[in-house]
Amino acid sequence: MIEILSPSEVTKARVTGALVADILYTLKSRTTVGTNLLDIDRWTKEMILKAGAESCYVDYAPSFGRGPFGHYICTGVNDAVLHGLPHDYQLADGDLLTLDLAVLKDGVAADSAISFVVGESAPPSGVAMIEATERALSAGIAAAVPGARIGDISHAIGSVLGAAGYPVNVEFGGHGIGSTMHQDPHVPNTGRPGRGYELRPGLLLALEPWVMEDTAKLVTDADGWTLRSATGCLTAHSEHTIAITDSGAEILTLPTGTLL
């Protein structure tokens, strides 16, 4: 299903997007060496409920996971790039952490992810990967204009990731979003320009470039959810929810700078 939101629904999406971004902003500020992933999950639950919103993850049970997910945020450490199931782990200096969050408020969802290094010992390769996903995300957003096609976004993202030397996996990528978290169209992280669904105002997309340092192959953790790099290499993931408007793409998941 592809949803085209009304102007009033896009207004609601702005509120949801700001909430998602501010929760991630707050979590990053709280996360230090020694922080437990389960504490991050608990903090997320508290902020979602305080805002009168709903988690998109707790009851989520797709075919590719051992559902329901049962937690409020995805927490991926080092080689864990997608769907990281929070567990009893204390973050160490130099860990590369990805936080991926989707929330529903007033009937509209928003989805965003950030990657960052915990502590002071930042691995150069990890920093480079994070920066590459952020550049790719910016390129994808710039390509998301009315009349363009999904392939134009995919091509923009994939061009940046490929130029940076990273293999690109197309099993998981961006997606439509609206009254539910995951909708059509699928937005692969590489593709051919001029192909696919034509963008029009009111369409919401979650764009999410993610990479693994030296492989495009994923393996599923024993927890049934966490997707890791097949070689154990570092990974990174960046994501924004955007709205297609008459003048281009509006980023809905930018933090307001408010700690929750």
Topology order in helix (H) and strand (E) letters: HHEEEEEHHEEEEEEEEE
Uncertain segments of ≥5 residues (pLDDT<50)? none
Portion of residues within helices: 25-40%
Q: Widest sheet: strand order?
A: 7-6-8-13-14
Q: What value does the Rg take, in angstroms?
A: 17 Å
DSSP helical segment count: 4
Q: What can be said about this structure in brief?
A:
This protein has 260 residues and is α+β, with helices and mostly antiparallel strands. It has helices at residues 7-30, 37-50, 124-143, 150-163, and strands at residues 54-55, 74-77, 80-82, 96-105, 108-117, 174-176, 183-187, 204-207, 210-212, 218-220, 227-229, 235-237, 240-245, 248-251.
Describe the structure.
It contains four helices and 14 strands. It is of the alpha+beta class and 260 residues long. The longest helix is centred in the N-terminal third of the chain and has 24 residues, at 7-30. The mean pLDDT is 97.
For the structure shown, list the relevant keywords.
4 helices; 24% strand; 14 strands; alpha+beta; 260 residues; four-stranded antiparallel β-sheet; five-stranded antiparallel β-sheet; 28% helix; single chain
